[in-house]
Design goal:
The chain is of the alpha/beta class. It has a single domain, classed as Flavin prenyltransferase-like (Rossmann fold), CATH 3.40.50. 35% of the residues lie in helices and 15% in strands. The protein has six helices and six strands. It has a six-stranded parallel β-sheet, sandwiched between helices. Helix 1 crosses helix 6 and helix 3 crosses helix 5. The termini are far apart. The structure holds flavin mononucleotide. Flavin mononucleotide binds next to helix 2 and helix 3.
């Protein structure tokens, strides 16, 4: 792994057009809060779905509202000149959350016709951490086969599954934070977003 500065990481976050933009919103917020550098890229549909789900005002330019930060750079999905479109850029990991079945299929077949897919392809070919948070239900055979292909190519599949063993109560955010925490764990980033099994209740 590379490190931009001691202890800080440079992470690419892709937002595709599946449901669940709140997962990447929480993830990006946490990473920035902890001093990490984030490159954010949303697909065209990703931005539309995120704006709808997060009730973002029409005409808002960025994918998430109120998230300007010196360590955050947002890239167009069409901008293949972004540094992380090349394996030579010192990127520590990439997360695609939520990841649509369309982006899963493209990645599984080497089709990199937007910056999210190109960056994902780069992570796999460079053997760097690529974490996919796929969202569809139910999953058909094509989805499952494509996810298996990605897993076999080194990606980590972290589906946003409901969890109950930490007694989440009624909070959707607790469910979201559980998923974000599992993603952060696999990026090697310390977090206490949920009560771990075996710790004090
Ligand atoms: C409101 C909304 C929700 C969607 N949710 C999902 C989803 O959960 N999973 C999925 O695979 N596609 C979902 N889609 C369809 C994708 O947006 C569509 O397949 C799109 O082509 C994905 O392109 P992208 O992967 O480049 O973002 C949704 C579309 C809309 C409009």
């Amino acid at each position: 792994m590379t490190a931009t500065e001691a202890g800080t990481k440079e992470i690419v976050v892709g937002v595709s057009g599946a449901s669940g933009a709140i997962i990447s919103a929480r993830l990006v917020h946490f990473l920035l809060d902890q001093g990490h550098r984030v490159h954010l890229v949303a697909s065209r549909t990703g931005k539309l779905v995120a704006h709808d789900e997060l009730s973002v005002a029409e005409g808002t330019r960025g994918v998430f509202p109120d998230m300007e930060h010196e360590n955050l750079t947002e890239w167009s999905e069409r901008n293949f000149f972004a540094p992380f479109a090349s394996g030579t850029a010192p990127i520590d990991g990439m997360v695609i959350a939520p990841c649509s079945m369309s982006t899963v299929a493209s990645l599984a077949h080497g089709i990199s016709d937007n910056l999210i897919k190109r960056a994902g392809e780069v992570m796999m070919k460079e053997r760097r951490p690529l974490i996919i948070v796929p969202r569809e239900s139910p999953l058909d055979r094509i989805h499952l086969k494509n996810l298996l292909t990605l897993s076999e190519s080194g990606a980590l599949i972290v589906p946003p599954m409901l969890t109950f063993y930490q007694h989440p109560g009624d909070s959707v955010l607790e469910q979201v934070d559980f998923v974000v925490s599992r993603v952060l764990d696999h990026l090697g980033i310390e977090n206490d977003l949920f009560r771990r099994w075996g710790s004090e209740r």
